[in-house]
Structures are given as structure tokens and as C-alpha cells.
């Protein structure tokens, strides 16, 4: 198996997916998608993908409809996607994806977490190059052969296809998202969820004591409402 498989396996073991946090993230994704491409999911592939993800975390349909309606209001602030880079203690690179309607607040908060946890904020581009920006799709297995599907989707950008207990996962470079989404839809395959991730090119092994220091910073960051994802180069236990 490749790096995407190992990365997914490691993240799955984390405390991930507090429902309230997942709903907040999807609410922001809906606003950004509607502001970018309009409220009709049939004509807005990004919104279509977010609605699929809302189902994957059991977000009530009325919450989704309310968020779409709210996003069409011109007085609703748009969220800007901002990337922060830096280092946790013990030389572990950290990449923080945020969606914010107040950049000054988010910058101040993220900087304070790094400072309080003995990390250092980096400049733009200081650690981003250490991660591959990928897209992913989850579809039902339905008896499909992942290896055969991978061969069929290579021409559309797929790099890694594998099965876990929740279905088949397809990983590809960030820029292949629209092409693969369209191909899966053309084939009539149900997309259970989709998204983007940053996979570290290399990881660093740390001791349990060092891991505790690093986890302290990651947890602080993940608790912030503006933070969408935190990625790092620490080797998962």
C-alpha cells in the first residue's frame, strides 16, 4: 500500500470527528461553495461535493438547506481560506488550514497557540512543500475490485485506490478533483464523501514524551473554530 493508505490509517485512529466541529466545517464549506458558484448543486460541483460530505457526517438536511439559504444573503460574510505554517516542538512541521471571516483574529489566535506550546510560526512556503496536496473520494465497494478501478481511473489522475471497512478510497493530486468527480458521476457511482488532504512526504519518529508536547499544540489548533485541518510530519503511532 502507498502513502495515502498509511496516512488515512493513522488519522483514523485519532480522536477525529466531533460532530459539532464537523457541522461547523461543512457550514463554512457551504458558504464558500455558494458564494463561488451559486446555490444550485446541479450547476455547482463544489456545492454538490459539500452536500455529499454533509450526508457522510449525518448532518440534518434542514441544516444544509438553512446554510445554503444563509449563504445566498449578500450580508453573509464570506470565508477566506488561509494557510498557516510553522514548527511544533522537536522539529515537527505543522500545516494549518483555516477558513476565516476575520483574518486578524485568526492570525493572532494561531500565533498564540504556537507561542504557548513552544512552537514557531513560519513564513509562507516554509513547510508547505513538505506535503503533497491531494484530493480523495469515497465510494461504496459493492463488490468492485480496487485494483481494476485504479487501472480504469489512472487516465483521470488517480494515484492510489484501496478498500477499507467503509468503502473504496480514491486518492489523486489536488488538481484532478473535478476530472475524477465528473468521471465517477458519469459512471453512476455514488460518491459517499470527498475532500482534500495534505500528506507528508516524509515523517519523523518521536518519543512518547515528545509526542505529548506536539499533541498539545495540535489539540489547541484543532479546538479553534477557524481551523479546518491540521497536518504534521510526526510519524503516527
Automatic annotation (TrEMBL):
Q: Which domain of life is it from?
A: Bacteria
Indicate yes or no for the key word Transcription. yes
Grouped into one coarse class, the protein's main location is cytoplasm
Q: What UniProt keywords apply to this chain's record, in alphabetical order? A: Cytoplasm, DNA-binding, Transcription, Transcription regulation
| Any one Gene Ontology cellular component term annotated for this protein | cytosol
The TACO1/YebC-like N-terminal domain extends over 4-73
Q: Which GO terms describe its biological process?
A: regulation of DNA-templated transcription
Q: Which NCBIfam families match?
A: PRK00110.1, PRK12378.1, YebC/PmpR family DNA-binding transcriptional regulator
Give the family per the record.
Belongs to the TACO1 family.
Protein name as annotated = Probable transcriptional regulatory protein E0F89_04895
Lineage of the organism = Bacteria, Pseudomonadati, Bacteroidota, Flavobacteriia, Flavobacteriales
Amino acid at each position: 500500500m502507498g502513502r495515502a493508505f498509511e496516512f488515512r490509517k493513522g488519522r483514523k485512529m485519532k480522536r477525529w470527528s466531533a460532530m459539532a466541529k464537523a457541522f461547523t466545517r461543512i457550514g463554512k464549506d457551504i458558504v464558500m461553495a455558494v458564494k463561488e458558484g451559486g446555490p444550485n448543486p446541479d450547476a455547482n460541483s463544489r456545492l454538490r461535493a459539500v452536500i455529499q460530505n454533509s450526508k457522510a457526517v449525518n448532518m440534518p438536511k434542514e441544516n444544509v438547506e438553512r446554510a445554503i439559504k444563509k449563504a445566498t444573503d449578500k450580508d453573509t460574510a464570506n470565508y477566506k481560506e488561509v494557510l498557516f505554517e510553522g514548527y511544533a516542538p522537536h522539529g515537527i512541521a505543522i500545516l494549518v488550514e483555516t477558513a476565516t471571516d476575520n483574518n486578524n483574529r485568526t492570525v493572532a489566535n494561531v500565533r498564540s497557540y504556537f507561542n504557548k506550546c513552544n512552537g514557531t510560526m513560519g513564513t509562507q512556503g516554509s513547510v508547505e512543500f513538505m506535503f503533497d496536496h491531494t484530493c480523495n473520494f469515497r465510494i461504496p465497494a459493492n463488490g468492485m475490485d480496487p485494483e481494476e478501478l485504479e487501472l480504469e481511473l489512472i487516465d483521470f489522475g488517480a494515484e492510489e485506490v484501496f478498500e477499507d471497512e467503509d468503502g473504496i478510497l480514491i486518492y489523486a493530486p489536488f488538481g484532478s478533483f473535478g476530472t475524477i468527480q465528473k468521471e465517477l458521476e458519469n459512471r453512476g457511482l455514488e460518491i459517499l464523501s470527498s475532500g482534500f488532504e495534505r500528506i507528508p512526504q516524509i515523517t519523523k519518529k518521536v518519543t512518547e514524551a515528545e509526542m505529548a508536547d506536539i499533541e498539545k499544540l495540535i489539540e489547541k489548533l484543532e479546538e479553534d473554530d477557524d481551523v479546518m485541518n491540521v497536518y504534521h510530519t510526526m510519524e503516527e503511532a
